[in-house]
């Protein structure tokens, strides 16, 4: 039996990719799509045999479509509201929406526990980006110096990226102590050494033409090691989301982070 999926935020940049991937996977079945201000009753999917109901009313659509899993790429307040509706109906959630507060995550965890349903929350569904963090943590045990260069499009609101901060934190945890941050005697241009966390200098590049890239440079006597990941399109998130959809149906609690599903 295919896993029945509803995509919340289905007309958004990531939501569209997820909907396409669900349509293409024989183990999954797209049974509904939700977004704001929809002008059609059905999601346009000419090559798909079934009509896929499209609605702006999440509760009504979920009641009608009876999905096993809702994939959510919307905005944090929308996600929390969707969770309050989905879990009592025993519908699992795979949540990629960022900006959830710790209190939001705890509410989702509590609802999972209360209704005995699984959910996955991951700030990064790109398998490569998660692997980079894991490999960087491993390398951190062997190098005392490390710097991160993260690069994103010019519309990104925050700097550094949440992924860069999480990477630096994981690296310092794996190392068990701060990295060596070499002092610069004369900083000719303010900020030129980047921001510093746990001894890791973090540099943020913002420009059009880039989606999301991260490079971690380790230095030791006579050698450097560079780990780099580039997100070239939003398709990068699809394998991670599909993995989470297939895993979440086996779970009865909240899982935070894709790494937990990758056996890392
Ligand atoms: P987007 O703005 O293109 O898409 C969001 C969609 O949600 C829009 O179509 C919007 O109309 C819809 N939406 C807003 N309110 C809604 C509501 N009440 N009900 C239903 N739909 C509603 O944004 P995006 O680039 O697709 O990103 C969406 C979210 O996913 C953001 O929080 C972003 O940071 C996050 N994101 C996460 C990952 C990851 O790997 N976890 C990757 C990329 C983006």
Describe the structure.
The protein has 264 residues and is an alpha/beta fold. The chain is 31% helix and 25% strand. It has 7 helices and 12 strands. The strands form 2 sheets. Strands 3-2-1-4-5-6-12 form a 7-stranded parallel β-sheet, sandwiched between helices. It binds nicotinamide-adenine-dinucleotide.
Describe the structure concisely.
With 264 residues, the protein is an alpha/beta fold. 31% of the residues lie in helices and 25% in strands.
Shape: elongated
Distance N terminus to C terminus?
Answer: 29 Å
Count up the helices: 7
Low-confidence stretches: none
Question: Helices, strands, pairings?
Answer:
Layout: E1 3-8, H1 13-24, E2 28-34, E3 54-55, H2 58-65, E4 69-72, H3 76-86, E5 92-95, H4 102-115, E6 119-121, H5 127-139, E7 145-152, H6 162-175, E8 195-197, E9 200-206, E10 212-220, E11 223-231, H7 238-248, E12 254-256
Parallel strand pairs: 1-2, 1-4, 2-3, 4-5, 5-6, 6-12, 7-9
Antiparallel strand pairs: 7-10, 8-9, 10-11
Helix pairs in contact: 3-4, 5-6
This protein binds nicotinamide-adenine-dinucleotide.
Residues 8-9, 11-15, 34-36, 58, 73-75, 78, 96-99, 122-126, 237 line the site of nicotinamide-adenine-dinucleotide (NAD).
